[in-house]
Amino acid sequence: MRRARVTVAYDGTDLYGFAEQVGVPTVMGRLREAIEKVARGPVEMVGAGRTDAGVHGWGQVISLDLPETLDLAMLQRRVNRMCGPQIAVREMRWAEHPEFHARFDAVYRQYRYHVLNTREPNPFAARTAWHVIEPLQLWAMQLACDPLIGEHDFSTFCRRPKGQENPSMVRRLISAKWSQVDGDVPGLLRFEIRANAFCHQMVRSIVGTLVEVGTGKLHAGDIRALLLQRNRQTAPQVAPPHGLVLWEVGYPTSLPTSSPTTSPTSSPG
Amino acid sequence: MRRARVTVAYDGTDLYGFAEQVGVPTVMGRLREAIEKVARGPVEMVGAGRTDAGVHGWGQVISLDLPETLDLAMLQRRVNRMCGPQIAVREMRWAEHPEFHARFDAVYRQYRYHVLNTREPNPFAARTAWHVIEPLQLWAMQLACDPLIGEHDFSTFCRRPKGQENPSMVRRLISAKWSQVDGDVPGLLRFEIRANAFCHQMVRSIVGTLVEVGTGKLHAGDIRALLLQRNRQTAPQVAPPHGLVLWEVGYPTSLPTSSPTTSPTSSPG
To answer: Per the CB < 8 Å rule, is A131 touching B85?
Structure first.
């Protein structure tokens, strides 16, 4: 057996999240079924980050062991025929290191969140953007990101995992940036956030809070106090899952996997 | 009663086309139901162009008569709450001319067709782009457009309507252009085509033919001969509906309705 590294994209709309669950379609469940069919044996897979039901993926990374004789190009083709287009393996290759671990080796995770800020709905943004009708002040939302950058206890913005006595909510936020997206969807806003790791619902809780700043219900100056509360009850709202996408996972020994220009084996046909 | 003008966008994936049909959801059917509920009476609607099942709309235009006392902003909001986000009224206003007719007054229709030209599928392009795996030569596809520009009998690329003895297939093609789309979807190609009017399945038949040129199965020099055949049996293939979108309809006395920068009432909130 040999360690392999897989980059996966998925439209999470009709999926029950990344992690396997009995009886419902999930990213991991559907991928495992397809890979096991081709590899003709059980496989154990590890993902870089769990995503909730309805959340999308573009650069999700998975590590797993496969028989060394397996033709990965053939495997990728067959898996995509079985799982696509809802779930698509963007890249499948042997890992540089035999012990490569998608979750523990990751040095950062980058998420994107899209908000459609228009009066009327847009059919082509409905699956991947949160429609907010009230006009948003982008500069205020950007200003409100400042106190979040750096290493903090993010308890205010995190849902506590069940069954853990006193889990650490300390994370290191590397960057957080709002921008307007040029393209075919007028009024589309993008939030790009990078951290060493995120706790549960952290991005959606931060987005929900920043949108309150954008509408004027909160002020940028309120964010620091909220963060210091370390109390989830004080966070105003959690943004819906369908605007969120796990965009990229970074590893120390290699270039980011989700950029097609830097990854020689993932260039489009 | 007063003549109104409506611009509509729709994701056609789960709709049975634009025109009303008994027992299945269509754009016109769902819009009429919603408008009649608010207007409290029957309405007659005319669309600029019929689109087939699975085809999308961004700038479809509809003309209809409504009670003069009706608040159009309220009507738009309520219709979008009932029909959105799958179908969204982008703009609703009183027509400049009392006799404005969405179909007969249109001087051009512009369609877009998207092709995803990558080895692997992309979950986020699956609903709106035709996935073509074989590498396409964009310059050859562009060259092949030349003989189509101008006024021609497009019988080769048109499906004959039932029940008409000898319908004219003469149309005036104004422009046809291929381009690569910069954005989040690597390998996305766009075909933009404008004509005074199109006959049935004409855009999809032209795209199917141009893609054969892109893969090298046909040569750009073959297109003129195909056009002169005036025989639908000679056209190689019809591209699938889900890559097509009715992008814009042009009228002589007003600016295009689908550009938010030129239309004062459709600017995003």
So the answer is: yes
pLDDT at B146: 97
Residue B58, domain member (yes or no): yes
Closest-approach residue (CA) in chain A for B181: A183
Q: What CATH number is attached to the domain comprising B57?
A: 3.30.70.580
Q: Do B146 and B226 reside in the same domain of the chain?
A: yes
Which residue in the set A56, A88, A124 is minimally distant from B11, CB to CB? A124
ipTM summary value: 0.87
Length of chain A: 269
Give contacts of A118 with chain B, Cβ < 8 Å: 268-269
Query: Residue A228 burial (CB < 10 Å; 0-12/13-18/19+)?
Result: middle
Give the domain extent around A147: 108-246
> Considering the domain boundaries, does residue B120 fall inside one?
yes
What pTM does this model have? 0.90
User: pLDDT tens, B49-82?
Assistant: 999 999 999 999 999 999 999 999 999 999 999 9
At A165, the pLDDT band (50, 70, 90 cuts) reads: confident
C-alpha–C-alpha distance, residues A177 and B112, integer Å:
32
| Judgement on whether residues A41 and A146 belong to the same structural domain of the protein | no
Residues A67 and A190 in one domain: no
Across the interface, of A76, A124, A268, the residue whose CB is closest to B128 is: A124
Could you tell me if B178 and B145 are in contact, meaning their C-beta atoms sit under 8 angstroms apart?
yes
Measured between beta carbons, the chain A residues lying within 8 angstroms of B111 are none
- B252, part of any domain: no
Average per-residue pLDDT in chain B? 92
pLDDT digits (tens, 9 = 90+) for A103-116: 999 999 999 999 99
The label of the residue with tokens 């239309």 reads B263
pLDDT band of residue A236 (cuts 50, 70, 90) is confident
The tally of domains found in chain A comes to 2
Residues B91-113 have pLDDT tens digits of: 999 999 999 999 999 999 999 99
Best A119, A120, A263 member to test B by mutation, with max B CBs in 10 Å, is A120
Residues B23 and B121 in one domain: no
Residues B48 and B114 both lie in one domain = no
* CATH code for the domain of A177: 3.30.70.660
Interatomic CA distance for residues B141 and B33, integer angstroms? 42
Looking from the CA of B102 toward its CB, the CA atoms found within 13 Å total 24
Q: Which residue has the higher pLDDT, B148 or B231?
A: B148
CA distance A71 to A59: 22
Q: What does the block give as tokens for B242?
A: 């889900």
Name the closest residue on chain B to residue A120, using Cα atoms: B90
Q: For residue B268, what pLDDT is reported?
A: 36
The CA-atom distances, in angstroms, between B208 and each of A258, B162, B178, B201 are: 31, 23, 13, 10
Q: What is the mean pLDDT of residues A179-190?
A: 94
B141 and B14 part of one domain: no
Regarding whether B127 and B233 lie in a shared domain, the answer is yes
Looking at the structure, tell me whether residues B147 and B28 fall in a common domain: no
Question: B116 to chain A, minimum CA–CA distance in Å?
Answer: 10
